[in-house]
């Protein structure tokens, strides 16, 4: 790079601010007067997944929490504080938990200490990352057979990223602040996956959106199909079939 990347970023910011103000003189004064975003985005820290940019939205539109591999743990006070502020105070209408293809966290959780994958122990990264990625490794163990059946490394990482989003959505749906808002004012929770290779976001059909059309009988059900599996909702609950 010809120029120091920080200095380049500052000059780029200057140009952007000038362009936005020229385009709409009221843009920054309005932005400075307060925020009322309708979306809380929980995503990965990956530089290729900047939520506002990939959604084609603007500053002020999306309240955000991103961490390595978009892991939602019930005991993580950082994530919990962001959720509570967004849901109880900003009163967002949607929570979007979004994983992505080619996630380094998923690849690391799939990496084995022995070559060839599958049979070996976890490959250690050192530092705090092994601890942080523990939930992903637990998912890997719980779904080892299905994951090992996927021959392609990239596809296996995508499947683990999907499973991670599903697990995170389950945690969100058990969060008391979220449960109250879903019940009292129709807050919606969505799980999706960003395909870096195409720029498209794919809704995984999980969260509050699936409608439980039938109660009690269990004779009718609704199916939500994903790339590698299908969720079946019936009167008694939901199940995931992985192919
Ligand atoms: Zn990632």
Short overview:
Helices cover 41% and strands 21% of the residues.
What does this structure look like?
It catalyses: hydrogencarbonate + H(+) = CO2 + H2O. This protein has 243 residues and is an alpha/beta fold. The chain has one domain: Beta-carbonic Anhydrase, Chain A (3-Layer(aba) Sandwich). The strands form 2 sheets. It has a 5-stranded mixed β-sheet with strand order 2-1-3-4-5. A 3-stranded antiparallel β-sheet has the order 6-7-8, with no helix packed on it. Strand 1, helix 3 and strand 2 form a beta-alpha-beta unit. Helix 5 crosses helix 7 and helix 7 crosses helix 9. It starts with a helix and ends with a strand. About 5% of the residues have low confidence. The structure holds zinc ion. The site of zinc ion has 7 residues, from helix 5. Zinc ion binds next to helix 5.
What distinguishing features does this structure have?
single chain, 243 residues, alpha/beta, Beta-carbonic Anhydrase, Chain A, five-stranded mixed β-sheet, three-stranded antiparallel β-sheet, 8 strands, 21% strand, binds zinc ion
């Amino acid at each position: 790079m010809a120029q120091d990347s920080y200095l380049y970023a500052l000059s780029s910011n200057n140009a952007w601010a000038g362009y936005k103000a020229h385009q709409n003189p009221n843009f920054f004064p309005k932005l400075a007067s307060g925020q009322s975003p309708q979306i809380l985005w929980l995503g990965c820290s990956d530089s290729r997944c900047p939520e506002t940019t990939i959604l084609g939205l603007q500053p002020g539109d999306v309240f955000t929490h991103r961490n390595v591999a978009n892991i939602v743990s019930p005991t993580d006070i950082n994530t919990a504080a962001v959720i509570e502020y967004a849901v109880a105070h900003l009163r967002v209408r949607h929570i979007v938990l979004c994983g992505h293809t080619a996630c380094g966290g998923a690849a690391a959780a799939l990496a084995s200490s022995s070559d060839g994958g599958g049979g070996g122990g976890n490959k250690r990264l050192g530092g705090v990352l092994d601890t942080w990625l523990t939930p992903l490794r637990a998912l890997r163990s719980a779904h080892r057979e299905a994951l090992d059946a996927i021959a392609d490394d990239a596809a296996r990482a995508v499947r683990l990223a999907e499973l991670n989003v599903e697990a995170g959505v389950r945690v969100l749906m058990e969060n008391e602040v979220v449960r109250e808002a879903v019940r009292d004012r129709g807050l919606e929770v969505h799980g999706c996956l960003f395909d870096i290779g195409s720029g498209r976001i794919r809704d995984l059909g999980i969260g509050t959106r699936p409608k439980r059309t039938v109660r009690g009988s269990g004779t009718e059900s609704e199916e939500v199909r994903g790339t590698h599996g299908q969720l079946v909702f019936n009167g008694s609950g939901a199940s995931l079939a992985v192919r």
